[in-house]
Amino acid sequence: MSAQAQMRAMLDQLMGTSRDGDATRQRVKFSDDRVCKSHLLGCCPHDILSGTRMDLGECTKIHDLALRADYEIAAKERDLFFELDAMEHLESFIVDCDRRTDIAKKRLAETQEEISAEVAAKAEKVHELNEEIGKLLAKAEQLGAEGNVEESQKVMQEVERVRTKKREAEEAHQWN
Fold first, then answer.
1. What residues contact 123, with CB distance under 8 A and at least 6 apart?
2. Overall pTM surpassing 0.70 (yes/no)
3. Which of these, 103, 80, 96, lies nearest to 45 by C-alpha position?
């Protein structure tokens, strides 16, 4: 773009498209249905949310800063009620966002339920191993009290094996 074209674009943006009194140069008027009324008011969600997680992409309507300048000049003279069009556009956008949020919340709740069930199962496994260790220790103590030392030692080896399984289950529980 040449320096002259850049200056022309900056003047259009600042003063509108009919700044030279040449009405034939302007092809699209700000009141045209193809022009984004939300953009004219500075509240088009396509502009506001660009580069965010809710980015909507490009607006299908015309966004021209020169047309915004034309609108601002005309709005000083009379009320054009473009706010109503912009409000309808924003309300439809809000409904769409609410729908997306509800879907995401449902997906999150399902995921949380799955995770909670998995964690509960792992915690239950650790609890069962604790009970088994307690029973085996009581059995080893009873066998030792009866003088059956060899059987008591075999039971203590079993206790160590179960403790190892318990440690592994606890580590799996902690990392998930």
1. 173
2. no
3. 96
